[in-house]
Amino acid sequence: xxxxxxxxxxxxxxxxxxxxxxxxxxxxxxxxxxxxxxxxxxxxxxxxxxxxxxxxxxxxxxxxxxxxxxxxxxxxxxxxxxxxxxxxxxxxxxxxxxxxxxxxxxxxxxxxxxxxxxxxxxxxxxxxxxxxxxxxxxxxxxxxxxxxxxxxxxxxxxxxxxxxxxxxxxxxxxxxxxxxxxxxxxxxxxxxxxxxxxxxxxxxxxxxxxxx
Length: 212
Prior knowledge:
The chain has six helices and five strands, in the order βαβααβααββα. The chain has 212 residues and is an alpha/beta fold. The chain has one domain (17-205). The chain has a five-stranded parallel β-sheet, sandwiched between helices. It is globular. Mean pLDDT is 91; it is low at 1-9.
């Protein structure tokens, strides 16, 4: 059963006393060498995420478990993976580790690698409809299995009254147990980042294709 996402600027702590809680923060996996305007926007986004998380912690409890999409290792090894795929959010996650939180292996390595291989197959441009369908099926199956694994991993790791945070791309379909209260982090810069992405995609689509 999925717990509806909730937005609370100042949640009443007593309302959720004793319950397991999960903060859910959208992420954008971009390389570090972005144009200056995009880099500044992402830095502002992560600054606002940090402020929002700290406000929630004051009301609901301190985060002790950190989960991150596509990370399949604990501790320093996992942190290296997170910094490589999410350079703009890495410093905040490292600061959480230095405080009270443990970075948890969130995904299954075999599933992540299989999913990446199917993505690579599609990215090269397939000619065969049969192979294309096979790759699409592989993507869909591994995506669903990854979401199921993430939900189960969080449920197993969060103890009674504990607080965790999940960093994951928007559009995910992870389902959480009904006894985990989920708080969606949506700072003002979130919409600005999404507009920047939409503008870039629109500009790319309008570029002339091919040519001699």
